[in-house]
Each structure stands twice: as structure tokens, then as C-alpha cells.
Design brief:
324 residues; seven-stranded mixed beta sheet; alpha/beta; 28% helix; six-stranded parallel beta sheet
Amino acid sequence: MKAIHLTAYGNPAQSLEMVEVSEPSTLSAGEALVRMEYAPVDYSDLLLANGVYFLNPTLPSVIGGEGAGIVEAIGPGVTDAKVGDRVTIPFRTFTWAEKVLAPAHGLFVVPPSIDAKTASMLNINPTTAVLLLDGSVKLKPGDWIVLNAANSQVARCLIAVAKWRDLRIVGIVRRHELIPELEALGVDFVGVDSAELPQQIQSATDGMPISLGLDAVGGPATATIASLLSPGAHLVSYAWLSGLPIHLPQGDLIGKRLNIHGFWMYYEEYLPKMRAALTEATKVVASGKLSLPITTTYKPFQIKEAIEHSQRGGKVLLDFNDTK
């Protein structure tokens, strides 16, 4: 069968290649064989391939952090899924192959109303959104949160889940032309990072406290979020799009007694919460309140083109259907 191997850490466009490997022939107790349909090329996959992620499999190795497919066979004792189910693949089982052997207890059976391409994107961004909203603060309907990189894929999931929960949202972007698009998604106030932004937000929120700030950028952008938070609030860093260390003015850190956290959805404390988060995220998608658009798909033999496209921007899926 066809699989995509990472052969060396470094430039993923050069170190990922399609190979022929043996198809899994026997299933142990508790295992399921899944025929993959689609698997995204995620930002975290690029980080892993570059050798700067939190996972470093022994090479050569299949990689790919999420995806969906059809259960083709099950081992003894499997009750979590049945042959023919469309499922997402659990953490620590890599997805960039025609067939994947996975622990059945980690499979998530996708509702029939969700198509294969959308199903392949459920595990990371939508689930991250739920975990970020649950991880630090007990929020109630009407509470405000603030997030930057508000036009990013994770932020769009955060916006949808937050609106599902009747939370109110301040979104920060870098360009004025993004404002109408985010307002159409239901963001209560969208502003461009500037010296005037704190006063604009104070007015928009009527001075209501903001107890959760979600930072995907780092650098000076973190300082902007810190300036908007209320005393005792939580600031969570979950990505570093700028590549810069976070900036935190001591006045906000000390005077407000802010709580600063790093977030990775695969921390041990989140793993027991993963299924509930995925279940809620799937309900939001099934309701139509969250769409997960893609830019294009590539076949496995086009992995170089797929990686280069993903690096330029856009949501890319690998298509493992009919690869013969």
C-alpha cells in the first residue's frame, strides 16, 4: 500500500516522499484497520517535519496528526466501532497512509451528516477550540473573551464554539479589510491592533471584565491582549505565529496578577477530556454553525506540491481514495 514517509527532519517539501509499504495483515485484540479517505496537512505536521514540534518519531516514519476513514476490519473484543463506520484517528496514530492500524478505543465514530473531508478535520482545530475555552476559566453565557489572529483557522473554530455557548468575543486582526468577514461570523467587536484599540474595546464591552485571553501570535501582540484583561484573568498562549517570544509588561503581570499558561491539546491532563471536546465540536459542525472549508486536495504522489501549497497558505487535504 502507499504511505508517506518522513525521511529526515528539515524542509518537509524535500524530506517527505510517497513509498510502498506492506499492508497490515493481522489485527490484535482491541485494534481496528481503517482505510483512510482524507488527511489534512496541518501546521503541526509542518512543525513536526521540521523537527521543532513536541513529537519526534524515529525515522523513517509515517506522519500526519489527523484524518478520517472507513473501518475495514476489527480485532477481537472491539466494541467501540464496527466495520463500515467512518471514524477519526486518535492521537499518536499517524494518518498519512492508505490504511492505518489504530487502537479501537480511540476511534471517534463520525455522524452520517458529516462528509469525509470535513470529518478529517475534526480532531485538531475544532477540538482545540473547545479545550481552550474549558481549560482555564469557568465561562458562563454573556462572558467576554479576547483572541488575536482572529481570522486563523483555529480562531474561526473558537468563534463558532464561543457563539454556540453564548459567549461574547473580541477579535484582534492586523488588517482592516478582515473586519467585515469576522463580524459576519458573529464576533461582537473586531479591531486592528493599535494604540487606540484598548479604548475602543473598553467602549465596546461597556467596561465588562475579560477573564480569558487567547494568544496565537506572541511578541508584542501578547502585550496587547494582556492590557485588555481584567485582574486575575488567564492568558493562554497556544501558538507562536510571529516566531517571537511573548511580551508581557510587568505592570499587567504584577498589578493584575495575571495567570499565564501554555497550551498543547495533548498534555496529559487534556487526554481524558478529548472525547467530550471532540463530541461537542462535532455537534457545532453538524449544526451548521461551523464550516471547515478546504482549498484543494492532493494525491499521495503529489506530497511535495501539497506541502508547498500548505506553506503558502490554504487548507490542503491529502486524498487517499482510489490511489491505485
